[in-house]
Design a protein that fits this description.
With about 325 residues, this protein is of the alpha/beta class. The chain has two domains: about 1-125 and about 320-330, Rossmann fold (3-Layer(aba) Sandwich); about 130-315, Dihydrodipicolinate Reductase, domain 2, CATH 3.30.360. About 35% of the residues lie in helices and about 25% in strands. The chain has ten helices and 14 strands. β5 (about 65-70), α3 and β6 form a beta-alpha-beta unit. α5 (about 125-140) packs across α10. The termini are close together.
Amino acid sequence: MKVAVVGATGLVGTKMLQVLAERNFPVTELIPVASERSVGKEVEFKGKRFKIVSMTDAIAAKPAVAIFSAGGSTSLEWAPKFAEAGITVIDNSSAWRMDPSKKLIVPEVNADALGKDDKIIANPNCSTIQMVVALNPLHKKYKIKRIVVSTYQSVTGTGKKAVDQMFGERSKAEKGSNNEYPMAYKYPIDLNVIPQIDVFLDNGYTKEEMKMVNETKKIMRDDSIRVTATTVRIPVVGGHSESVNVEFADDYKLDEVSTLLSQSPGVVVVDDPATQQYPMPKDAHDRDEVFVGRLRRDETQANTLNMWVVSDNLRKGAATNAVQIAEYLVSKNLL
C-alpha cells in the first residue's frame, strides 16, 4: 500500500503522518510531497526518514491513495492528474467539496456513498465535520428542521503563522519581548476574539459560515435542513468549540438524547453540570473523538435542543477524517 501525503510539511500534513502511524494504516511505502523548495528534504514516519518528492515523481510512483492538504489551487491543478493515473485522492481543501460530481465524506455519517469510481473524495470543513458527527444520530431519530450554530475556533485552523502570532503577542505582553512575529490576522488575536473566518460574501456571511450551511446539507443528504452560522476565531489551540441550537420535527427526551449520543461512533458525552463536567478544547487536544455536553432543552421553542460540541480540528477536523476515509476504502476493497 503506497501512500502519498501531499503537503506533508504543513500543520495538517504533519498531523496526517502522525495519525497514519498511530492508527497503523497499512503503509508499505510513504511518498511525502511538498512544494518544490522542499523537495529533497526529509520527513520522519514510524522512525524512518523519507525524502520529499515532487508532484510529478509522486504520480510516477503510483500510490494507491494520495491524501492532499496543500490548498485549493494546488488541489484543483493536481488532484485530477493523480486521479487520471488511477490514484484515489482524498482532498482536505475546499476545492471539490461542493462539486456535485464529488462525494463529501464524514465516515460516521455517509461513507456508504463511496464507490470504486470515486477518484477524488472531498474532506469537509473542520467545523462542519464535528457538528455533523454529533447531529447525525439525532437527525435519524428526530429529523432536524433547523440548526443555529456559533463557533469558537482555534488559531490552529488558520495555520502555523496564526499560532506564531498568538504566542508572539503573548510573549510580548508577558515578557516585554521584542521578537518579531507574523500577523496572520488583521487584528491581535491573543486576549481577543475575531468574528470573521475567511472572507465576507455579498450576503454578509463569511465563506466559513456558508461552508457550514452548504456542506451540512450535502453530507447529511437532506436539503431541507436549514442552517445559519456565525464563525469566530478565539485565542486557543487544541480544538474548535461550537454552540449548537437544533430544532427537530419530533420531540425528544434529554436522557434519550444523551444515551443515543453515547452509543454513536466517534462521539463522547461529557455532560454533568453537578460536577462542572463539559467538553473543552484542552481535553479534546490530540484526541479523535467529538465531545458533546451542555445538553439542555431550549425552553423558548418546541422540540429544540441546545448542545456544546468540541473536537480537535487538526485531527477529526482534518487528518483523522481523511485517514478514516482511506481506512473505509481499504475495508471495502475500493482502492
